[in-house]
Amino acid sequence: MVWNTYCMNKIFLGVFLIAIVALGGWYISQNRSLFTPQTSSSSTPTDEADPAENAKQDAVLIVSESIVGKWQSREDAQFVREFQDGGILVDYYDNEEVFAGTWSITSGVDAMEIVIEGDGTQEDTLHFTITEFTADTLVLTYMDRGGVLEFSAIK
């Protein structure tokens, strides 16, 4: 009888442990969300703003607002480039309009870039790097050939 009770206790303990493990597995499968990390749909690592990228975007905005106005060429005083609000660009030579198009500033790898697209018969797209920019000076380097245009602000 002692052996019978001993065996029955072992069998009962084994069945009890198996039942506990089975119930635990079932509970976990039914409540998986409790055991997996939750990610917020509004904030994922790819959505978080990069401080360096924010600084570039701020700089582009500041330059885009500050460049608006007329700029006279330092090499040829008869050449004037006007950056207007809304991305409109007009080039004048000897006070006559010689080129019209649009402009936009982007954040390049090493420097800000300005893209000028011509309208009408002059549908060229020109890419410049903004080499220097102050309230009085604008220096653009033509990216295709490396030519440099230097301007002074017209007050």
Compile the SSE list and pairings.
Elements: H1 2-30, H2 32-35, H3 51-66, E1 69-73, E2 79-84, E3 88-93, E4 96-107, E5 112-118, E6 125-133, E7 137-142, E8 148-153
Antiparallel strand pairs: 1-2, 1-8, 2-3, 3-4, 4-5, 5-6, 6-7, 7-8
* Low-confidence runs of at least 5 consecutive residues: none
What's the helix-strand series?
A: HHHEEEEEEEE
CATH topology category name of the largest domain:
Lipocalin
Query: How many domains, as an integer?
Result: 2
Which strand-content bin applies to the residues?
A: 35-45%
Q: What is the global morphology? A: rod-shaped
Strand order of the largest sheet: 1-2-3-4-5-6-7-8
Mean pLDDT: 80
Would you give an account of this structure?
- The protein is of the alpha+beta class.
- The protein folds into two domains: 31 residues; 86 residues, Lipocalin.
- It has three helices and eight strands; from the N terminus they run αααββββββββ.
- An eight-stranded antiparallel β-barrel has the order 1-2-3-4-5-6-7-8.
- The longest helix is centred in the first third of the chain and has 29 residues.
- It is rod-shaped.
- The mean pLDDT is 80.
Features:
single chain; 155 residues; alpha+beta; Lipocalin; 2 domains; 8-stranded antiparallel beta barrel; 32% helix; 37% strand
Summarize the entry for a quick read.
This protein is of the alpha+beta class. The chain has three helices and eight strands.
